[in-house]
TrEMBL record:
The keyword Repeat appears for this protein: no
MF terms (GO), sorted A to Z: 4 iron, 4 sulfur cluster binding; ATP binding; ATP-dependent FeS chaperone activity; metal ion binding
Transmembrane portions of the chain: none
Name this protein carries in UniProt: NUBP2 factor
Pfam families documented for this protein: ParA
GO BP: iron-sulfur cluster assembly
UniProt organism field: Setophaga kirtlandii (Kirtland's warbler)
Amino acid sequence: TLAERANLAGVRHIVLVLSGKGGVGKSTLSTELALALRHAGKRVGILDVDLCGPSIPRMLRVQDSAVHQCDSGWVPVFVGQDKAIALMSIGFLLERPDDAVVWRGPKKNALIKQFVTDVAWGDLDFLIVDTPPGTSDEHISTVEALRPHQLLGAVLVTTPQ
């Protein structure tokens, strides 16, 4: 729909960060990539779709922040002294940052779609999408929801083992 496209209309490039397993550093790489792009003068956002382990708010020291609503959806949390990195994560929607999310597929898929369509990102050069470990429903839902928005590509994080 038109409203869905509007929230990502100002995003020039979308990059997924994926891996086949957990604990390989996807969230660290997503965070470092965002910081490096920001350091290079780019406008950056991070969409944390790791619903069961949203660690990016803690990595960027904004885990106590709250997400607010505006006319076009959720306003992401802005990180840093210059408020230069926009971040959306389920971590902001939990009662306590360390709460576990135990949901079945349809509810997870609905939240991912809502994150893609209902966050007011504004103008960004890059949106980094941090995904959960594995190759599950969440990945398919994320790619399906982002399909109309011309993904730039993906970074696949692997380990030497």
